[in-house]
Amino acid sequence: MSCYVVLGFGAAGAATARLLVEQGHSVRVVTRSGRAAEPGIEHVVLDAADAAALTGVAQGADAILQCAAPPYDRWASDLPPLAASACAAAEATGAVLVMLGNLYGYGPVDGPMTEDLPLSATGRKGRVRAAAWERARTLHEQGRIRAVEVRASDFFGPGVTDGGHLAARVLPPLLRGRPVSTLGDTDVPHSWTYLPDVARALAEVAGAERAWGRAWHVPTEPALSVRQMVERLAAEAGTGPIPVRGLPAAVLAVGGIFSPLLRELKEIRYQFTRPFVVDASPYEAAFEVRATPFDQQVKATVDWWREGSAGAAGAAGAAGRP
Question: SS3 for 131?
């Protein structure tokens, strides 16, 4: 049995912590606010950006899994100290640092995204994400820590209730048979990463030495457009066909005057106006986790929302975008 420290208990952190418990490991979860007790998980109330305090909690851990993410509009200010603290704790304790990242660091690209692309994002959030991994990778190359990053596209699935493009904007109206409005072009291909597959990939690379020192993409089913996703979800829910409308850029600009979240979405609108496709073939060639078949993803997601997402949302928290 290994001991894992999981930072954050949003959708990704919660799914990962619970999976590790199922696999027979000891798990400590670090959050600022704490959580209700549940079997196998020790909840620790702590600001994970406090390196000294985090180092104390991580003593004896085999790995630190960094799944915490500040609110979307505070990434630039809050994510760097959080990433620095995780690196410091990994160096002080010898625990492997497993970072949950995303695809923002690449910026707009032509063709499928692969892990060997340069992290050349010009947007603020993309630069912050890229810098967090580059710091960890440098320390790894210097022999000071052991680190690996797992990158996912937009989350969807059971437990994703806020921030995710399909969760907050699409599923609630879809389940009521109402039209949905989404960012950008509703017909360009987009990769959607299933949350349980994120958790399984994080758990797998944490214990696989050959994975360390580089980034990997989570296995993800072939890209589908927003319209195709809505059609599949509505068919499963029995509420289709559902009209799908793209939000014009002007609407996003006006909304951003009043909403910090909408202001932040302007930076990544390119992800929904051009193909945004992830290639996870290197991971699949090296490890065992595979993307869950899409029909199973859709059924589990619709079932979860129908079985009482409002109550589950409070427990699951928010982590639509890693």
Answer: helix
Q: Which helix (H) or strand (E) holds 298?
A: helix 294-306
pLDDT at 315 (0 to 100): 39
Q: What is 164-182 written as a DSSP string? A: -HHHHTTHHHHHTT--EEE
Ramachandran area for residue 226 (φ above 0: left; ψ -120 to 50: alpha; else beta)? alpha
Q: Selecting from 3.40.50.720, 1.10.260.40, 3.40.1280.10, 1.10.10.10, what CATH number does the domain 3-154+194-217 have? A: 3.40.50.720
**CB proximity list for 134: less than 8 A, separation 6 or greater:** 119
The percent of residues in the chain predicted with pLDDT above 90, rounded, is 76
Beta carbons of 65 and 206 less than 8 angstroms apart: yes
pLDDT digits (tens, 9 = 90+) for 116-169: 999 999 999 999 999 999 999 999 999 999 999 999 999 899 999 875 567 777
Global confidence as pTM:
0.92
Domain borders along the chain are 3-154+194-217, 159-191+222-277+293-307
